[in-house]
Write a structure and sequence with these properties.
The complex is a heterodimer. By secondary structure, chain A is an all-alpha fold. Chain A folds into two domains: 76 residues, no CATH class; 156 residues, no CATH class. Helix content of chain A is 83%, strand content 0%. Chain A has 13 helices and no strands. Chain B has two domains: 61 residues; 55 residues. The longest helix of chain B has 37 residues. The C terminus of chain B is likely disordered. The chains are: A mainly alpha, B mainly alpha. Chains A and B meet through helix 2, helix 3, helix 4, helix 5 and helix 6 of A and helix 1, helix 2, helix 3, helix 4 and helix 5 of B.
Amino acid sequence: MNGLGLAQVWVYLAASPLLHLFATLLAFIVASRINRWAGGTPLLHPVIVAIALLIGFLLLTDTNYATYFEGAQFLHFLLGPATVALAIPLYDHRERVRRMLWPIVIGTLAGVVTAVVSAVGIAMILGADPETVLSLAPKSVTSPIAMGIAEKIGGIPSLTAGLVLLTGVVGCIVGPWIFRLTRITDPTIQGYSMGLAAHGFGTAYCFASVGAVAGAFSGLAMGLSGLVTAFMLPSIVHLFGF
Amino acid sequence: MALIIGMSILLGCQFLGEIISRTLALPVPGPVLGMLILLIGLMIRGSVPASLRTMGEGLLKYLTLLFVPAGVGLIQHFGLISREIGILIVTLIVSTSVTLLVTSQILQRVANRTGSSREGKA
């Protein structure tokens, strides 16, 4: 009797958006605890751990992604207004931009072109599928913008989301090493480069390990390079024949 | 009321951006245009309304949580990922390193020439 009751409850839960919305929040809380316990390493970033936990849960319960997304879409929807909200930190940094206008303009343009051309070029040389190439192209940009770009140019938004997260992890690992090797010590330059190449992960890293000035510049770079990439990427990719 | 007004401003800008992106068939995502519209609006107004700051900074604080649903979508691409895993890893590591290197070197040179990095340090 009891077993049958539980099965009925499961049938109800599995079809309702409640379960997967709740599971997403729960997975994120658990993932944040795991990350804190592991000393905040970018390798076990809460987002990556949460995604792994949820994928495991879906595989175990034999649930398809469409069913999961019915619950999770309420969170996913907020990416749109969150992207718009990036205008607030950009506005807060307007004085910094005015003071360092030329380095910022030239650095942003060069960085964005390098990020896109190197990703597309390397993936093409290695023989990736066109869909993979287009999903890799916006990898250095913050997820909400990158996913929007991938959707517009014919990439796979969810693949892009995963690649963006991995780019952030890679940036936090190689960044400090590159700065040491090339003797870049200025925190404004470290911050700006990290934000441009590794978006929010780079910004979080700078706030935690370099300092507040580096963090602020990193956040500025993340917003500006996202904006510039959204406008430039389609034409750059077009040059490669897409 | 503050959260409602703040959310309405954000959604209004996104809405306008989405309409512009679709009517003009622009390759730029609607929310990015919305961000540009909001930025221009803030510059004209000269300050950030308290309601908008409360809502906007709240959303940005939990931005990482919002990536999770899309990231779980990787479950649909296991085939593609396992087929191209080598390409993906090499591209991510090399491209990210090159981007960091080029950006930091260019910033260093331009800042040295214009001498403006001093102020940034202060």
